[in-house]
Amino acid sequence: MTALESAATHEPRPLWMPDPAEVAASAFAAFAAEAGRRAGTTFADFDALHAWSIADREAFWDLVWDFGGVIGEKGERRLVDGDRMPGAQFFPDARLNFAENLLRRSDDTTAIVYRAEDRREGRMSWRELNALVSRLQQALEAEGVAVGDRVCAMLPNGPEAVASMLAVASLGAVWSSCSPDFGERGVLDRFGQIEPKVFITCDGYWYGGKTIDVADKVAAVAGQLPTAGKVVIVAHLGTADALAARLPNGVTFAAFTAGFDAKPPRFVRVAFNQPLYILFSSGTTGVPKCIVHGVGGTLLQHLKEHKLHAGVKPGDRVFYFTTLGWMMWNWLVSALAAEATLILFDGSPFAPTPLVLWDMAAAERVTLFGTSAKYIDSIAKEGLRPRDTHDLSALRMICSTGSPLAPESFGYVYEAIKPTVHLASISGGTDIVSCFVLGIPDKPVWKGEIQGPGLGLAVDVYDDAGRPVRGEKGELVCAKAFPCMPVMFWNDPGGAKYRAAYFERFPNVWCHGDFAEWTEHGGMIIHGRSDATLNPGGVRIGTAEIYAQVEQIPEVIEALAIGQDWDGDVRIVLFVRLKAGATLDEALTGRIKAKIRTGASPRHVPARIVAVADIPRTKSGKIVELAVREVVHGRPVKNVEALANPDALALFAGIEDLAR
């Protein structure tokens, strides 16, 4: 039994229990009551409601539409070919507009609060947001942007990005974005595939106390996007005018939107599966896949997650630390549909101090605070205790994703941040622009566990033979079709790449690529990505099981494990990044191995432990085991531009320590 299993299944009591009065007053309870009325029964708890949501998907998603107050024409049919995956069609007769559903308010209350590391900050009312969207919409129309056209953005996380996306969506066009820290090749590998009609970018950004000028990169990228009739420059460093003048088709954001009246925006209603977003796979093993998400599936799924699972209600203040290169940005912006206020932050979460995000959370009365598991681990290692230094009385929920949240991090949140907060470890990803497993309002939080599956999603764990399993590890699957499956992959005639990505392992079943396990509480543990699973002696081991032990060692900042082909088998090699002043001597090596042996199992103990100065990760902060594995085996990594710190890969090439 691994430490993750032990922590999750043998804790004497949960870390958090829902308040019955709060649950009774929640949107979840109201939804369950209406579901019971429609189904002619009573749903005693989440598990009963979830079972119904799977058994009668037509009725469930019909109620999500109504309960979420979706603006649009629902049409007659709810689900056609529901047993086909891919091929199922939800609401095939519907007509709706994504932006219309997010801009359902136009009053003077606050829609967006934004802060940036350079001290740029401000507020935007719903009225002001509608006005900016309208001016952008008119400007985009003047450039010929219409239904199905692509608009791409390389922007910091600010109000201009939100308004631009809404303007694009209002026209029935397609939005795709990345953050300005992407390299030239990384941007072109993404946007070059989808041929944008307009490219929206910036003159630079701030990070870690430094200004980063991107003028040369913008010029290089723009020169290789021949379909972009306009390159729109948002000013962040005060050099937008000069950059716009440098480009033959350049224009500043201010000039692009000038001269248009701030009349109410118009909304072009489109089919349920009309493309809305193009997101990209990480691209660390080749050119990124272009994953196309539809208008209706994205809207319904996000309304469900925000309102029912996260309890977001009008006036709530929702924050997620993210960039435009991570699908959590798309998820965050959808909170507007629940009439919440978006709290945006751009910059380093540790500048000017490691408490900058908590300063903002306290000052802005944040109700939902979203971040990554790595951030929680980092502030824990810094010894920070926000509960002692900040007023977090408004904070109701903390969400964590990006990688599995270690059991010790669960304990840290309740001990050092807020004892009464609802901690929701969530997991899903770019492939579904949402979550498969996430927080549940009427269930306890157990250490090391994600609470359970999303409503309407037939989530399960299969063994290699395609059989559901309990109490053992297997493949995370979804056994029935759901609305937020990708509409398609871009440039994938016949859908061969799409089918290969999700449906080849188990016919007619979505195989997500996570190595997972149900717990005795009905929760789930994610043990890492299936393609990064280690197989020493033929036994499958999730990398998260090793990290959960190693990162408890005070000297270790972070770790990365791979399987190295060795002597006809596979051996585990563990790389560790150490704190300043620490040395990987025999004593520390012995402590690391002992911790893994006792906390996990002897099979988890690495054959080699190697200290490295840095560990490569994607732009969204995920470590890249596969890329390191390729380097160690002397194979080329196809797309280093996908990495936030590509130079780190060189540290793993020809490491002498591995030869012994």
TrEMBL record:
<protein>
    <submittedName>
        <fullName>Acetoacetate--CoA ligase</fullName>
        <ecNumber>6.2.1.16</ecNumber>
    </submittedName>
</protein>
<dbReference type="InterPro" id="IPR045851">
    <property type="entry name" value="AMP-bd_C_sf"/>
</dbReference>
<dbReference type="GO" id="GO:0006629">
    <property type="term" value="P:lipid metabolic process"/>
</dbReference>
<dbReference type="InterPro" id="IPR005914">
    <property type="entry name" value="Acac_CoA_synth"/>
</dbReference>
<feature type="domain" description="AMP-binding enzyme C-terminal">
    <location>
        <begin position="551"/>
        <end position="622"/>
    </location>
</feature>
<feature type="domain" description="AMP-dependent synthetase/ligase">
    <location>
        <begin position="104"/>
        <end position="479"/>
    </location>
</feature>
<dbReference type="Pfam" id="PF16177">
    <property type="entry name" value="ACAS_N"/>
</dbReference>
<keyword id="KW-0067">ATP-binding</keyword>
<dbReference type="InterPro" id="IPR000873">
    <property type="entry name" value="AMP-dep_synth/lig_dom"/>
</dbReference>
<dbReference type="Pfam" id="PF13193">
    <property type="entry name" value="AMP-binding_C"/>
</dbReference>
<dbReference type="Pfam" id="PF00501">
    <property type="entry name" value="AMP-binding"/>
</dbReference>
<feature type="domain" description="Acetyl-coenzyme A synthetase N-terminal">
    <location>
        <begin position="47"/>
        <end position="101"/>
    </location>
</feature>
<dbReference type="InterPro" id="IPR032387">
    <property type="entry name" value="ACAS_N"/>
</dbReference>
<dbReference type="InterPro" id="IPR042099">
    <property type="entry name" value="ANL_N_sf"/>
</dbReference>
<keyword id="KW-0436">Ligase</keyword>
<keyword id="KW-0547">Nucleotide-binding</keyword>
<dbReference type="GO" id="GO:0030729">
    <property type="term" value="F:acetoacetate-CoA ligase activity"/>
</dbReference>
<dbReference type="InterPro" id="IPR025110">
    <property type="entry name" value="AMP-bd_C"/>
</dbReference>
<comment type="similarity">
    <text>Belongs to the ATP-dependent AMP-binding enzyme family.</text>
</comment>
<dbReference type="GO" id="GO:0005524">
    <property type="term" value="F:ATP binding"/>
</dbReference>
<dbReference type="InterPro" id="IPR020845">
    <property type="entry name" value="AMP-binding_CS"/>
</dbReference>
